[in-house]
């Protein structure tokens, strides 16, 4: 008369995995939305200095980056070990900064130009000589808002 | 009897989604760009008359040499004393004749009433051989000094930290303590390196 066949002897019931895809999809969408693809391949090594009084850069589209540091191992044969600067994907000379800034400006919306910020991502070991020259170039290009990129903490 | 529509086996859906998830996990960069924001001074046009000289007592001279040593007003100083030094210089609570002067007349600042503003300017000069991390450390200390001054004032007047104030109040506090850090052209004392 027992209509319900007893399965086994109280073994743990299998966990339903039907909702697993949903959970995973949720995570997936989160990462898809938050992700920012790497825009540049760094040819130089940059280890940022630390600071405490930092501000977040609000709008990424308003920021152009200047990387400064010694070339990484693979490029040391070609470029040596002296600190160089990188704009977009190329190692550049300091005199190229002006052209880079005006190219970045061109890409921007007219209204946003006054809010344009230049973020200097320099390796902590570089000397101030090269940084000062970059700053001088930025002044000439009248890109006056700058940001020294740093890590948090000290 | 019509055959029931066969269900698609969704068991591997999770695997596909996981694969995508891992791809995005790997490519994602979570770092938020942050740093010390500064404003460079514009190059003055050539035919512009020279700005009036600032009195020596109103300039707080901060020098960093090529050995990353810090000198303030001609004397060596430890980095951790710089912040307090700047604050004392700007505030000048005891009217020390060596520290910064107050502006001749008090200014009426909204929300804060009559305030005596300082004429003090911090002048930062570095050598070409100065290391970048040292420069950032000093910049950080200077910015910290001004942030603490602002925090102290807003704590006293509004009972809140500067960053929690609303916009017009922030502006008022900013007016009392503008970030007056000027950067001189670097010198090349240390020779070519």
Q: What is the number of helical segments of chain B per DSSP (H or I, 4+ residues)? A: 4
The largest sheet of chain A has its strands arranged as: 5-4-3-6-7
End-to-end span of chain A in angstroms? 76 Å
Tell me the distance between the termini of chain B. 91 Å
Describe this entry's structure for a reader.
The complex is a heterodimer of chains A (154) and B (193). Chain A is α/β, with parallel strands linked by helices and 154 residues long. Chain A is 30% helix and 20% strand. Chain A has 4 helices and 8 strands, in the order αβββαββαβαββ. In chain A, strand 6, helix 4 and strand 7 form a beta-alpha-beta unit. The model of chain A has no long low-confidence stretch (mean pLDDT 83). Chain B is an alpha/beta fold and 193 residues long. The longest helix of chain B is centred in the last third of the chain and has 27 residues. In chain B, the strands form 2 sheets. Chain B has a 5-stranded mixed β-sheet, with helices on one face. A two-stranded antiparallel ribbon of chain B has the order 5-6. Chain B starts with 12 loop residues before the first helix and ends in a 10-residue tail after the last strand. Classes of the chains: A alpha/beta (154), B alpha/beta (193). The interface between A and B is large, with 53 and 46 residues.
Keywords:
heterodimer, A: 154 residues, alpha/beta, five-stranded mixed sheet, two-stranded parallel sheet, 8 strands, 20% strand, B: 193 residues, 17% strand
Quick overview of this protein structure:
The complex is a heterodimer of chains A (154) and B (193). Chain A is α/β, with parallel strands linked by helices and 154 residues long.
């Amino acid at each position: 008369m027992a209509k319900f066949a007893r399965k086994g002897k109280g073994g743990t019931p299998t966990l339903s995995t039907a909702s697993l895809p949903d959970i995973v999809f949720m995570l997936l969408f989160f990462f898809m939305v938050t992700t920012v693809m790497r825009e540049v391949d760094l040819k130089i090594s940059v280890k940022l200095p630390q600071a405490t009084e930092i501000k977040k850069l609000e709008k990424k589209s308003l920021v152009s980056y200047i990387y400064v540091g010694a070339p990484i191992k693979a490029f040391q044969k070609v470029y040596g070990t002296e600190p160089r600067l990188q704009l977009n994907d190329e190692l550049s000379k300091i005199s190229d900064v002006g052209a880079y800034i005006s190219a970045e400006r061109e890409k921007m919306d007219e209204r946003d130009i006054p809010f344009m910020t230049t973020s200097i991502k320099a390796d902590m070991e570089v000397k101030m000589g090269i940084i000062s020259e970059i700053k001088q170039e930025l002044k000439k290009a009248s890109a006056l808002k700058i940001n020294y990129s740093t890590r948090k903490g000290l | 009897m019509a055959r029931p529509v066969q269900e698609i086996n969704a068991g591997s859906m999770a695997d596909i989604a996981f694969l995508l998830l891992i791809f995005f996990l790997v490519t994602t960069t979570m770092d938020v760009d942050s740093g010390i924001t500064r404003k460079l001074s514009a190059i003055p046009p050539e035919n512009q008359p020279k700005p009036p000289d600032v009195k020596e007592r109103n300039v707080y001279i901060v020098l960093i040499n090529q050995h990353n040593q810090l000198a303030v007003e001609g004397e060596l100083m430890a980095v951790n004393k710089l912040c307090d030094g700047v604050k004392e210089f700007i505030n000048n609570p005891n009217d020390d004749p060596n520290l910064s002067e107050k502006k001749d007349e008090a200014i009426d600042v909204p929300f804060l009433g009559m305030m005596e503003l300082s004429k003090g300017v911090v002048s930062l000069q570095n050598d070409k051989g100065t290391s970048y991390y040292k420069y950032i450390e000093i910049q950080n200390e200077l910015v910290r000094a001004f942030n603490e001054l602002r925090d102290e004032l807003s704590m006293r007047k509004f009972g809140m930290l500067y960053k929690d104030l609303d916009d017009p109040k922030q502006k008022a506090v900013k007016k009392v303590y503008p970030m007056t850090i000027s950067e001189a052209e670097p010198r090349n004392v240390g020779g070519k390196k």
